[in-house]
Amino acid sequence: MADIRIKQRLREGRAVGVVSGHHTSDMIDFLGQFGLDGIWIECEHGPVSWEEIGDMSRACDLWNMASIVRVTANEPWLITRTLDRGASGIAVPHVSTREAAAAVVRAAKFGPLGRRGMYGGRRSYGVPDYYQQANDETLVVILIEESEAIANLAEILTVDHIDVFFVAPADLAQTMGYTGQPDHPEVRAVIDRAIRQIVAAGRTAGALVTDETIEHYYQLGARFLLTGWPAWVARAARAYRQRLDSLAHQS
How far apart are CA 118 and CA 163, in angstroms? Predict the structure, then answer.
């Protein structure tokens, strides 16, 4: 098993920084030097293969970062296989009822907490008490990203063994009638209320943040803070282009 610090930090109420983007194992190696807590490996919308999950999760292990794979659906076989491939955590989309949240736990945890398929993959090698350690160390994130989930949030929050309740803006905006407008004031207000509700229930809230909004969501109480590195590159690339154009005008 890998020595993953992210769950301990969350238990202590400390903020963790997780980065998403167009990842490869080489990109993860590059990002590892900066002390990030986790990498969000995108399998719901991205091109990542089963083989690549193994390589990417190993790269995360080298830098003591969590490898958090967003799976495509809340399906037991999919969650089991993702964890067997070496992911240290999963993020499950579109969890909108208490029953759906409980199903995530059943699929992600071995007995007596759940019914994850009895296998181990590379994380079990040389670990005599692997099943107990897996239950302790696997990070479970569910995405609250539909109006139905907001309506059922109080019940969803009663499900134990979920480490992060992540309020995702884009799909939530769509279900609220604001497709493509995750920053609409009404959407932002719902997100803020949901984060406060999660924190008030004694659970850990997650939020999608930017350099401009990170302090806002931290102050609300979110501690799992996800951001995307492409925005950093885009900002630097634009500044570089503008600098080049400025120099051209001077000559």
Answer: 22
User: What would the mean pLDDT of 137-151 be, rounded to a whole number?
Assistant: 97
For tokens 């406060």, name the residue.
Answer: 196
Sequence-ordered list of residues with C-beta below 8 angstroms from that of 26, at least 6 positions apart, any chain: 59
pLDDT tens sequence across 44-96: 998 899 999 999 999 999 999 999 999 999 999 999 999 999 999 999 999 99
Query: Domain tally for the chain?
Result: 1
Tokens found for residue 169? 């803006």
> In this structure, what is the dihedral angle of CA atoms 201, 203, 207, 211, given to the nearest 10 degrees?
100
88 secondary structure, DSSP code: S
Global model pTM greater than 0.85: yes
Which residue among the candidates 45, 161, 184, 216 is catalytic per the annotation? 45
Tell me the Cα Rg of the chain. Answer: 19
Residue 217 phi/psi, 5-degree rounding, is: -70, -30
Q: Is residue 1 part of a domain?
A: no
Which tokens sit at 189?
């207000």
165 domain-assigned: yes
Q: Does 157 have pLDDT greater than 60?
A: yes
CATH code: domain of residue 60: 3.20.20.60
Q: Catalytic: 45?
A: yes
- Whether 240 is covered by a domain: the verdict is yes
CB 197, CB 159: distance < 8 Å:
no
Expressed as residue numbers, the domain containing 39 is 6-250
